[in-house]
Amino acid sequence: MKNSPNKNNKTDEIASKLLGKKVSGSDTYKPDFLVAVPREENRKQYGIQNSKLPFNGFDVWHCYEFSVMTKSGVPVTRVLKLKYNCDNDFLVESKSLKLYLNSYNMTRLGENTADCLKICKSMIEKDLSDKLKTKVEINFLPDETQRVEIFKNFINLMTLVDENSLVVEQFKESPEVLKINYCGEEKEYYLTFDSLRSNCRVTHQPDFGDAFIYYKSHKHIDESSLIEYLTSFRSEYHFHEECCEMIYKRLSDLLDKEDELFVCALYTRRGGIDICPARWSKNCRINDADTLADLTQYARHGIKQ
Fold first, then answer.
1. pTM for this one?
2. Catalytic residue at 244?
3. Which of 34, 237, 276, 297 is the most buried (most CB within 10 A)?
4. For 21-43, how does the pLDDT look when each residue is reduced to its tens digit (9 = 90+)?
5. Out of 116, 200, 264, 276, which one is annotated catalytic?
């Protein structure tokens, strides 16, 4: 059964713990703000078992509004990047993460900037790792961080089809629209779609992003049908991580077990945070430094760590 804006469930109850509420003490350090949301509920709808995931992957978050102070009251502001694997049982709810990070705003730590950031890194990694019951890595990106062009080998799906022949009528996730052709030889496909749109399952606000899909197979996924499928998320209500896994699972179901598959959904910033989940088949061996191998280093807007 698909999630809908009118259907309440346990996950939504957990995720909405702080939604629309005035939170006291929001500008002084408070790890209790963090809320962990179980992944299992959405996964089991699509035949994905937490104990036997069909993919590898991680979730990358970029937090653009992190600020803290030294003991002398000197402000320290950085872009914070956090990453954790998808094989744990929980993801962090974005509103709770924002409140948690904002709780550092008037907190004084360290004798100088370097000392302050070192302490913050240790505290944040511990708090998130404890809450999500997995290893969470964080880094602060310096102001002079290099900006680069990312995913330059990927081709926009819309350039591969005749737009005049496209008719999209499904706006709830519709895997039945996907069509497969058989090729005589194994080929690699690098595809991107810049009109991915879904909705937050808690706030119902729209989320926009770019989808990046790589696969290597004797099969060929019809590009027009892939556009139809990705467009069908426009009335879905899911977390970003869930959308990425749903897309991966549907495509994986069409391909052969030995085929390579990679799916990444780089969402735009909302509330000072962007979320960039990626999932790939366990046999995926791509070494092109300009594309997939560098995903761990890049944000949607070209920030290199």
1. 0.80
2. no
3. 276
4. 555 556 678 999 999 999 988 89
5. 200
